[in-house]
Amino acid sequence: MAVAIRLSRGGAKKRPYYRIVVADSRAARDGKYLEQIGTYNPLLAKDNPERVKINEERARYWLGVGAQASDRVARFLDAAGVKERAARNNPNKAEPGQKAKDRAEDRAAKLAAAEEAANAPVEEEAPAAEEAAAEEAPANEEAPATEEAPAAEEAPAAEAGEEQAEG
Hints:
Helices cover 51% and strands 19% of the residues. Strands 4-3-2-1-5 form a 5-stranded mixed beta sheet. The chain is built from 4 helices and 5 strands, in the order E-E-E-E-H-E-H-H-H. It is elongated. The protein has helices at 56-64, 71-80, 98-119, 122-166; strands at residues 3-12, 15-24, 35-40, 52-54, 68-69.
């Protein structure tokens, strides 16, 4: 039987309260336990002595007979001076993932392309813009004439439809 020292949740919804218990590792989180050796109330201030209470003598006994503390309980036991916990170091913790790095590279490439376009000589673009405007002007003049013609044809048809509806 593997024995674990872990937290068992109690309290109401959004108002957690934990017992520090010694239980069979296969038992349910809030299920049957062998012994309660302390309490943890996360709603209290971090400097409040009532936040974490541990019976250090019983904790030492259970650790002596082979019980394994969960990570959170191991932190409590380390703070109480019962069991030393090796500090973990994850130097890559704050490093972004591969997809985020790819997105940043794409963004940088687009920004560089936009800066190149903005820094391009303005003199070369001006004649091209004038030519495009000259080509669009006749097209714009013809477009309203074609748009008006169908509108004129629709008006009598609409009136005829109204006369048929009345008759």
